[in-house]
């Protein structure tokens, strides 16, 4: 028998893993996914009570609710596998007859694909349904998803070619957005399986510390950057400069996501009780 990865054994464990997550966290995930409906009801009720008129939340308000719900879901990643730091439940997880690779793959599938997908489907479907039955709500959010592509297509062909040359194209931007989102999910997952208590607090505290350090480094570095040199560069050098900056941002985003995944792997490989 393959001790590293067996599809049959993985299927059995994955079914157990996702069933456990559904049993313990389905209500919370559904609540976050239905936050658009909750915001819609609250907005309409407040409008009827205080303004004596019927007013559904517009697309800007619903987009704000969506962003807030995404943030809540990221923070809640600390809870999905947070039980691994518990002596009893964590020890039981270690004793489950599945390899670390199988447990890791199951954890990744649930964290960065299945749970976010369940949230997105729930939120966008309910938002679309609200706009279908209530025209005062305006356009559904899902109709605005291709806005990056639409913006790119609205740019003149010559400028579009130049944007592509420096790495600004909708496909690559979408890929990096997804990768960064995965990195954020994995970061909060990592904090959830590292800290025994106050998981969200410590996760936010680390982010605050890192952002503070980066802000200080940026503030110290900016005076030494010669921005006037850009005025003396020809067009090709300016393109190369911005392409380098965009490439670095893409590389750093990829490294961040891979590092978070590696951290999760190292943690579940060394966890003991």
- Mean pLDDT, nearest integer? 84
**Structural class of the secondary structure composition?**
mainly alpha
- Helical content stands at over 70%
Query: What's the main sheet like?
Result: none
Determine the N-to-C terminus distance: 28 Å
Shape, please? globular
Please indicate the percent range of residues in DSSP E strands (runs of 2 or more): under 5%
**Helix/strand order:** HHHHHHHHHH
Let me know the number of strands.
0
Q: Which residue ranges are poorly predicted, with pLDDT under 50 across at least 5 consecutive positions?
A: none
Query: Over the alpha carbons, how many angstroms does the gyration radius reach?
Result: 23 Å
Count of distinct structural domains: 1
Quickly count the helices: 10
Walk me through the structure.
The chain is mainly alpha-helical. It has one domain (7-270). The protein has helices at residues 7-33, 35-51, 59-80, 87-95, 100-133, 147-154, 157-165, 170-194, 199-221, 235-270. The chain starts with 6 loop residues before the first helix and ends with a helix.
